[in-house]
Amino acid sequence: MKAEQLKLGPMDNFSYVVWDTHLREAAVIDPAWQPKKIEDFLQKEKLALKLLLLTHAHPDHVNAARYFLDKDKALTLTMHKNDLFLLGDDIKPLNLIKDNDELVLGRVKIKVIHTPGHTPGSVSYVAGGCVFTGDTLFVGGCGRVDLPGSDPKALRISLLKLAALSGETTLYPGHSYNGNSSTIGVQKECNIYMKLAAKSEAEFLKAAA
Ligand SMILES: [Fe+2]
Q1: What digits encode the pLDDT tens for the residues 40-60?
Q2: CATH, domain range 2-208
Q3: How far is ligand 1, taken at its centre, from the CA of residue 32, in Å?
């Protein structure tokens, strides 16, 4: 498996292209802002787009989904049902996923971890030694919990779930805020929110809320 990080749009968002290097089947995680740039990358690498995956349904992570769905009627938008309230009714077809589901991309298995807190339907995707965390975990930070559907207690539990991954796992966040990538191990050591999440609920809530 290979992954390409594409920094797109005015809010330092990352879209990701993940692909099976043998079969050249690709997933786009968080299709947003500049679909032509994503498409150019797919064409340059001769990749067939098979999956559109959302970490969550905030507009800055999904606003190019319609472009791909309109072009290829075989595509669906993969997301957690708890974020449907953030989407208009006209984005379909949907493929609703839940915690522990496994998605197949050629020979690559993509595991779904439900990581609510920033939004109720936030998920992280684990594949090929990498985790794509959307707005749940950033390099040196975590997602906002003052938005509709946010839940700081749930975010703490989600950070603990991510902390349980191997320390070697490469972290690919949803925005370029303090850095573009890291590892789970480094974040457990250096990210104040990861540290407070492990320490106590009260201290985490004081820092995050
Ligand atoms: Fe978000």
Answers
A1: 999 999 999 999 999 999 999
A2: 3.60.15.10
A3: 12
